[in-house]
Amino acid sequence: MTMATVSYKNLKVLLIEDESYTRMITRTLLRQIGVHTIEEAANGRDGFAKAVDWRPDLVLCDIHMAPVDGFEFIKKLRGLDDVGLRSTPVIFLTADSKRDNVIIAKEHAANGFLVKPISLSALKTRLDLAAGIAKV
Fold first, then answer.
1. Count of beta carbons in the 10 Å neighbourhood of residue 53
2. Quick one: which of 27, 119, 14, 26 has its CA closest to 58?
3. Which long-range contacts (CB under 8 A, 24 or more apart) does 6-10 make?
4. Which of 47, 107, 122, 134 is the most exposed place for a label (fewest CB within 10 A)?
5. Domains with residue ranges and CATH for the chain
6. What angle (nearest 5°) sits at the alpha carbon of residue 12, between those of residues 69 and 121?
7. How many CA atoms does the CB half-sphere of 99 hold within 13 Å?
8. Per-residue confidence at 4, pLDDT binned at 50, 70, 90?
């Protein structure tokens, strides 16, 4: 799928990030590439509840948050009985690109990484890769 053929107009994205400034910047970038439907949560606990209620097509999730971090969020999501919900693509947002985090993310079936500060082109590339998995 090329970038020209991907439409994000109907994509439902859940953004889980504890830093309000980063949420605002990421939301702005999502809107610039055409995502209209965005829900937000400030931590993994609230994000998990929103994911279950709202059923996003894709999740952008920070790793380092309290009281529930990104790894615990994806572990709970992947452990659900609901096949559709547990297979929701998750792209981690992190300022920390340590190898251990990448390994843990892969073990939990994460669909990608974006290292903060994220750029418009990096976000678009990650969404394009996940678009084949998400219901675009």
1. 8
2. 14
3. 6/127, 6/128, 6/131, 6/136, 7/34, 7/136, 8/33, 8/34, 8/35, 8/36, 8/127, 8/136, 9/34, 9/35, 9/36, 10/36, 10/37, 10/136
4. 107
5. 8-118 (3.40.50.2300)
6. 80
7. 0
8. very low
